[in-house]
Amino acid sequence: MNKKSIACIAFKENKVFIAKRNPVGQMGGRWEFPGGKVDAGETDEQSVTRECREEFGVEVEVGEKIAKATFKHFGDDFELNAYLVRFPHDGIAQKFTLTEHSEYRWAELSEIPTLSFVDSDLLIYPQVCKFFANSID
Known about the structure:
This protein has two helices and eight strands. It is an alpha+beta fold. The strands form two sheets. Strands 5-1-7-6 form a four-stranded mixed β-sheet, with helices on both faces. Strands 2, 3, 4 and 8 form a four-stranded antiparallel β-sheet that branches. β6 and β7 form a beta hairpin. The model has no long low-confidence stretch (mean pLDDT 95).
């Protein structure tokens, strides 16, 4: 059975929320759509809520699944599902509390390929762009 992980996709004024991982581990110092592994006995939605609480100190609203991909990590197969999330605020005036990241920002979708972005998130990037393009028509 595949291991599962989730990515949290939040949009604000034509921008997407991204965070830079702390400079440790294999993907340290790289940008990502926030998220993480789905724990045993947890639904994807519960994982999204937990990850946002742990990594940013906020309670989010979980929306629809907008992208999915599969990838290998250290020989294990992973299924990555991306969900739309709504933050209670944008983290600008009132800062998010960071535990796994050194910084975060709202980025243009077109910037993503120019950043040092986590490989697995680049797999869902085209679907995120397509979803965004279709949602503003």
